[in-house]
């Protein structure tokens, strides 16, 4: 998150944010960042197996197809940081999480066979994602994930000017730690349900919870600031000008 989301501001003595507030801010950074970072890591590891099972690709072609979304997402990271600094990190987080919700919703739909009862006959048709469309959606998902990571990274020098590298390493570690149980959850839910697309359903749920938590925290910060007639960087860019 680009600023302390519960309305805590820096001390009036100009010395910066107190230690306790910095620790709480660090946890909020970690919670927000770990979701998008862990999703990126897990998808990178999970998709070759997913592609091999769902689209019957061999290991080599599955790995190459996986790189089609990993490489653009990695290259987009630097431009995404510039976008976050220009338009505001919170605005980019809203766009990132909303985009992730839309794409994962589409990826969550399993192949389905429909039988429509027509007037004179039965009309069957199938609904599924072909490999080209799936790859396109994965590229979009990778870009949205990169945008979310960049939005958070762009705020580290502002809040931790002397410890930006340490904070970045800590957040990356948080994402790696969350990736392990997420990967296990992907495999477990797929085995239980027998539906490969449940992995994207889990990502949809994670993105939805993250978006709701962020929005509620921002609204809470706004109420506190408006009540005290104070204006600070906590106000999200989306509401600037009110």
Describe what this molecule looks like in 3D.
- This protein has 242 residues and is mainly alpha-helical.
- It has one domain (19-211): Growth Hormone, Chain: A (Up-down Bundle).
- It is built from seven helices and two strands; from the N terminus they run αααββαααα.
- The protein has a two-stranded antiparallel sheet.
Write the layout of secondary structure elements.
Blueprint: H1 19-54, H2 59-87, H3 89-107, E1 112-117, E2 122-127, H4 131-153, H5 156-159, H6 164-193, H7 198-227
Antiparallel strand pairs: 1-2
Helix pairs in contact: 1-2, 1-4, 1-6, 1-7, 2-3, 2-4, 3-4, 3-7
Radius of gyration: 21 Å
Q: Under the CATH scheme, which class? A: Mainly Alpha
Overall pLDDT metric: 80
Main β-sheet, in a few words? 2 strands, antiparallel
Provide the CATH architecture.
Up-down Bundle
Helix tally equals 7
Number of domains: 1
Topology-level CATH name: Growth Hormone, Chain: A
| Class of secondary structure makeup | mainly alpha
Key descriptive features of the protein:
single chain; 242 residues; mainly alpha; Growth Hormone, Chain: A; two-stranded antiparallel ribbon; 5% strand; globular; disordered C terminus
Give the gist of this structure.
The protein is mainly alpha-helical and 242 residues long. It has helices spanning 19-54, 59-87, 89-107, 131-153, 156-159, 164-193, 198-227; strands at 112-117, 122-127.
